[in-house]
């Protein structure tokens, strides 16, 4: 099924208004282009502020498989990793803004229709995981702030999240008009309060800079988790440039602020992530600020559930997004009742190893194949691009196996078997991105040369630089 574009046939004013108002239920519906810089900037800025981030900064301060960092090293790693990761998110927003296609449909042009199902399935899995964690942390913050049973908070957050996914563009407009202002005031107030405490940013632990790039990779991993969903939202952007700018700048500023505030809060509770909200509540207006951030956290769970449904539509294009959102919302709510936040760091390492090289392959391929690609459902398969992706993944894991049980042990054993000992200055994220990009570009050239004679031999055959014709 070719990617549909908004109809140009005569329509009534009321019909045009409906089309511009919301996302169509299926992939063959019209694509509204109604989001400007402020809409998208508010969306990404809100995603950068996360309750998970306040405690999640421990993954930067104490990276898996590496020595703990000093506070100064953790702050620098946060800034460097967030800027790199945010730029990657901005790059991944460009294809959606150009084509009007969601992220997993864009990958039909990179891998082919059927092979794009592989990253689609992986994306569904990681988004369900993120959505689950978000409900867990909302419940954790709610219990600390107001008390009550955890299950009630999980259930309430799950219901609100699911309802928001039914009108996604309306959710983005709400963020710009109301929520962003309240969040900015709350974060600024908490930052002022925490940093004026005598013990702020003193975790009392010895540290070094030797694990700097491992900590940087942890900060990158938080940001790049949004790579495979960026085009789900940028496809509604009025301009390509605003899609890139909003994602890169909006997200970077707020994630850095969120992580630094998290460091200050953790310093007041001895580095105990479970008590990260306690010093916030000690502020005179801390309860109000934390409640605002808790309610706003549903934008994180909203994005995860909504993009899970859109990713699933790459597998079932005619499935109704609203039905998928209801099912997925129920699933993450049930899962959130049985997991803990302690699994967070290991989850991040696996995410980074999968989606950073995926972006690298896309960039490398784009340098070779600059023209439009076939985004139809049965676009020709491009297995060489999958090979480039896997090579990038291997490069990441050999440098930073992470701490996930089983998975990490396998890659550590492989590294020892080949006698590879990565230097401390080597970043797994940057290495895998560059390796995947170079291999992707090289294999794209091989693919193009192999396909050119076949196209030339076909009478009247015309193809783009990748040797494919529109189906």
From TrEMBL:
Instruction: Locate the compositionally biased regions of type Low complexity.
Output: 1-13
Q: Does the keyword Repeat apply?
A: no
Which segment of the chain is annotated as a signal peptide? none
Give the transmembrane ranges.
Answer: 43-65, 71-93, 105-125, 137-166, 178-195, 207-230, 242-270, 276-295, 323-341, 347-368, 380-399, 425-444
* Membrane topology classification: Multi-pass membrane protein
Cellular localisation: Membrane
- Report the principal subcellular site: membrane
Q: Where is this region: Disordered?
A: 1-27
Give the record's keywords alphabetically.
Membrane, Transmembrane, Transmembrane helix
User: What InterPro entries does the database record attribute to this sequence?
Assistant: CodB, Pur-cyt_permease
The Swiss-Prot or TrEMBL record describes its family as follows: Belongs to the purine-cytosine permease (2.A.39) family.
What is the name attached to this protein's record?
A: Cytosine permease
Give the organism, scientific name: Actinomycetospora endophytica
- Tell me the organism's taxonomic lineage: Bacteria, Bacillati, Actinomycetota, Actinomycetes, Pseudonocardiales
């Amino acid at each position: 099924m070719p990617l549909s574009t908004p109809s140009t046939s005569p329509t009534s004013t009321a019909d045009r208004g409906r089309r511009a108002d919301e996302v169509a239920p299926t992939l063959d519906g019209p694509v509204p282009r109604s989001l400007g810089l402020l809409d998208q900037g508010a969306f990404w800025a809100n995603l950068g502020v996360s309750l998970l981030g306040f405690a999640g900064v421990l993954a930067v301060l104490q990276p898996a498989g590496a020595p703990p960092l000093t506070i100064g090293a953790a702050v620098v790693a946060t800034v460097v990793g967030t800027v790199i990761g945010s730029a990657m998110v901005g790059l991944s927003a460009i294809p959606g803004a150009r084509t009007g296609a969601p992220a997993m449909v864009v990958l039909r042009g990179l891998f082919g229709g059927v092979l794009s199902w592989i990253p689609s399935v992986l994306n569904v899995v990681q988004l369900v995981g993120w959505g689950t964690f978000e409900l867990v942390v909302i419940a954790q913050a709610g219990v600390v702030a107001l008390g009550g049973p955890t299950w009630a908070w999980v259930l309430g957050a799950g219901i609100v999240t699911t309802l928001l996914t039914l009108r996604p563009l309306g959710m983005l407009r709400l963020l710009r008009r109301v929520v962003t202002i309240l969040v900015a005031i709350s974060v600024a107030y908490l930052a002022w309060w925490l940093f004026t405490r005598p013990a702020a940013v003193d975790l009392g632990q010895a540290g070094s800079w030797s694990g700097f790039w491992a900590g940087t990779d942890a900060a990158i991993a938080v940001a790049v988790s949004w790579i495979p969903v960026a085009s789900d939202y940028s496809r509604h952007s009025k301009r390509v440039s605003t899609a890139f700018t909003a994602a890169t700048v909006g997200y970077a500023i707020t994630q850095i602020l969120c992580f630094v505030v998290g460091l200050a809060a953790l310093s007041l509770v001895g580095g105990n992530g479970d008590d990260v909200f306690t010093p916030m509540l000690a502020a005179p207006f801390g309860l109000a600020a934390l409640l605002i951030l808790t309610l706003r956290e549903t934008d994180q769970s909203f994005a995860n559930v909504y993009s899970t449904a859109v990713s699933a539509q790459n597998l079932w294009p005619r499935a109704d997004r609203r039905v998928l959102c209801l099912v997925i919302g129920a699933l993450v709510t049930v899962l959130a009742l049985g997991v803990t936040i302690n699994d967070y760091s290991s989850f991040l390492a696996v995410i980074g190893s999968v989606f950073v090289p995926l972006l690298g392959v896309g960039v490398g391929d784009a340098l070779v194949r600059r023209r439009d690609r076939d985004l139809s459902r049965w676009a020709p398969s491009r297995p060489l691009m999958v090979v480039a992706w896997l090579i990038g993944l291997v490069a990441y894991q050999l440098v930073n196996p992470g701490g996930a049980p089983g998975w990490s042990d396998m890659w550590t054993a492989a590294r020892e078997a080949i006698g590879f000992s990565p230097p401390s200055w080597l970043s797994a994220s940057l290495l895998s991105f560059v390796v995947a990009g170079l291999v992707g570009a090289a294999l794209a050239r091989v693919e193009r040369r192999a396909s050119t004679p076949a196209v030339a031999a076909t009478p009247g055959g015309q193809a783009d630089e990748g040797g494919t014709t529109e189906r």
